Amino acid sequence: MWVFGYGSLIWNAGFDYDERRVGFIKGYRRLFHQGSTDHRGTPANPGRTVTLEPHSGHICWGVAYRVSGHQAEQIALSYLEVREKQYDRKIYTDFFTDENSTEPTISDVLVYIASTDKKLNKNYLGPAPLETIARQIVGARGPSGPNLEYLLKLEAALTEMGCKDDHVIDLANAARKALTWKDENASLKEEDAK
């Protein structure tokens, strides 16, 4: 069994695996459109995590993990069903490691996706202006930690892989700016209180 990770699975698989490969899937774009009420936010203050949305001509870099043996597969799937419970779709697709190749390196890689249909996926937040998403990320925290940490770890993991994802980079920069503004505003309020 192969599992493709394009968000936190890149740096934190959370299950035992036999092999890890860097590569990409075709026809999808990674976007911070999924609400997180169980890991990086709360129901009252949802964070944002990435999901994939179909986009012709795009590729999404990430990692594929190979899990071997029936028992190991069942353990990994049980873990993923809990961890990825807010992602309501599972697809199987081709995984590539060479941008010039038309032949996949691996076929039938499992991918968890959050659908864009709010009737099926109550946590789908959808698109918003970059600054709005950045402020939401800076202000959200859940049981797995600050939402900003998720964004910055994803940016670092993609950079380490040699992947340039403009959406992630632009959002990380907007979040840093929002954090600076938030810190400066808090300092001004402290000074006014004195």
UniProtKB/TrEMBL annotation:
Domain of life according to the entry: Eukaryota
EC numbers, comma separated: 4.3.2.7
GO molecular function, one term: glutathione specific gamma-glutamylcyclotransferase activity
Pfam families attached to this UniProt entry: ChaC
UniProt keywords, alphabetically: Lyase
Gene Ontology process terms (BP): glutathione catabolic process
SUPFAM superfamilies, A to Z: Gamma-glutamyl cyclotransferase-like
The name this protein goes by in its record: glutathione-specific gamma-glutamylcyclotransferase
Organism name: Araucaria cunninghamii (Hoop pine)
